[in-house]
Design a protein that fits this description.
With 198 residues, the protein is an alpha+beta fold. The chain folds into two domains: 118 residues, 60s Ribosomal Protein L30, Chain: A (2-Layer Sandwich), CATH 3.30.1330.120; 60 residues, no CATH class. Helices cover 48% and strands 12% of the residues. It contains ten helices and four strands. A four-stranded mixed beta sheet has the order 2-1-3-4. Helix 4 crosses helix 6 and helix 7 runs antiparallel to helix 8. It starts with 6 loop residues before the first helix and ends with a helix.
Length: 198
């Protein structure tokens, strides 16, 4: 993931609830998350986060943004996203996080109380990406495409994905390594930014 592993605990549970039940972001109920005591102590006490660092460690913000965006990437930790008044309100008013003595480690439980009083819940024992809950090939490729575009061209990304799928048939890794180097355009842009700072 894109931040402390714990974000996937509440994230997985909240996302599972939403995807399984097609939850609309406009619901006016509550999202309740239970965490183990150590995890709660680290991530369960910032419903009113103050900036980027707070947002990064706030289970309230993480759950709210996953509920609204169905995704959690570094883009959700930029000011234009975490300063969104709707997300601030959701984190502070709709997300409730508590410590549950029955939970340990990275276990988490999420329960959504809908506006009509009905409830939906999900349980997460292992965060996505852990050995017990590994990413699928598609999820790994999506993650590479999301972050690869910061450094590589679309063509390079496509070529890398294709080459990795045939990795066992490569006679040498040199071409793959060369593809993973920063694209000339990106190198030029970085050099230009560096020059403008001096």
């Amino acid at each position: 993931m894109d931040g402390p592993q714990v974000f996937l605990d509440e994230g997985n549970a909240a996302l599972a609830v939403r995807l399984a039940n097609h939850l609309d972001e406009s619901f006016v109920g509550k999202l309740r998350i239970a965490l183990s005591q150590p995890t709660f102590d680290l991530h369960g006490k910032l419903p009113n986060y103050k900036g980027k660092f707070d947002a990064l460690i706030s289970g309230h913000y993480t759950a709210a943004v996953i509920l609204h965006d169905q995704a959690l990437t570094l883009a959700q930790f930029e000011p234009k996203r975490y300063e969104d008044p709707k997300l601030r309100r959701a984190a502070a008013e709709q997300v409730e996080i508590t410590a549950d003595p029955k939970l340990s480690g990275v276990q988490a439980i999420a329960e959504v109380e809908m506006s009509d009083g009905s409830k939906l819940s999900a349980h997460c024992d292992h965060p996505r990406g852990s050995p017990e809950n590994p990413l699928s090939r598609t999820q790994i490729e999506m993650k590479f495409r999301t972050y690869g575009k910061i450094r590589l061209t679309d063509g390079q990304i496509k070529s890398v994905v294709a080459m990795v799928s045939e990795l066992e048939n490569l006679s040498s890794a040199r071409e793959l390594i060369d593809m993973l180097r920063v694209a000339p355009r990106a190198q030029a842009e970085r050099a230009s930014r560096a020059a403008s700072m001096h």
